Amino acid sequence: MCPIVADGLHSFRLSKRITSAAGATKYRRLPASSGETDAYRPLFELVIAIDLLFRQFKSGDRQVHVNGLECSDRLEVLQRVFEHELTHMLELMVWESSSCKKSRFHKMAQHIFGHTEFTHQLITSKERARSEHTYKLAVR
Predict the structure, then answer these.
(1) Measured between alpha carbons, how far is 75 from 63 in angstroms, rounded to an integer?
(2) 74-103 pLDDT, tens per residue?
(3) Closest by alpha carbon to 116, among 88, 91, 94, 83?
(4) Structural domain range at position 47
(5) pTM to 2 decimals?
(6) What string of DSSP letters covers 77-98?
(7) How many domains is the chain built from?
(8) Fewest C-beta atoms under 10 Å: which of 33, 69, 119, 122?
């Protein structure tokens, strides 16, 4: 899918290919055009899973949470996922590494955005299939 925002170095895009993660932050270091051997320029790409986003809030669905916060609509889901990915980007800009499993990430996300957890509890395609279709596994 084409980027929504792109300036040659950074982009934000929506993806139909991400199936269980709600978003992703990609980071690369490109050689700087100045010719300096140690110089580089960062390249960031923030990606949001659009299919996962639109799979939420159908009649009879359970409540969804993103980063420990209850979401009442798709816009809130998008905001929470974007906040999570922004935290990755901030960490990468300052320390050139990021992990949402580490305490530095937890502290940043909690202080900046009020996140109390660092994952999503969205309805995935597997959960949707289990709830909409009856199936049994045959064991031989």
Answers:
(1) 14
(2) 999 999 999 999 999 999 989 989 999 999
(3) 83
(4) 5-132
(5) 0.79
(6) HHHHHHHHHHHHHHHHHHHS--
(7) 1
(8) 33
